[in-house]
Prior knowledge:
Number of strands: 12
Radius of gyration: 14 Å
Mean pLDDT: 82
Shape: globular
CATH topology: Rieske Iron-sulfur Protein
Distance between the termini: 24 Å
CATH class: Mainly Beta
Amino acid sequence: MVQGQIGGVFELGAVDDYPPGSVTAITAGRFYLVRLEDGGILALYRKCSHLGCAVPWDPAQGRFVCPCHGSEFERDGDVLNAPAPRPLDRFAITIANGTISVDTGTPIKREHAQPGGRIRVEAAQHGTMIRFSVSNTGTVLTPE
């Protein structure tokens, strides 16, 4: 069960509820929870970095496609086709006791693709709480 409102924290339930390779729209939060094939988890803001249009996931193409001006983004939010000047923004993720929370208070803007910007679920499944955040200089995983 998803609980929360935009600008606050969303409680999304168990990590296992989101299988690897899935992209789940969290409509009330205006973001997608992306579970990558390698088990990584991202929370991507659905707002296009070009002019702010809502960007839907296109499962047939396996990418996000902006209906306004044709920008396309990979599953991890990186730009595939312009005019978007940078990747989709992300939101901070916390995993505690196998449960996912996403803080939509402040979008994390990325100027370009950043390696390692994923949380590895294996590191969080043993009762450890991990706070996930990304800055323009890289990725920070800080135990709470």
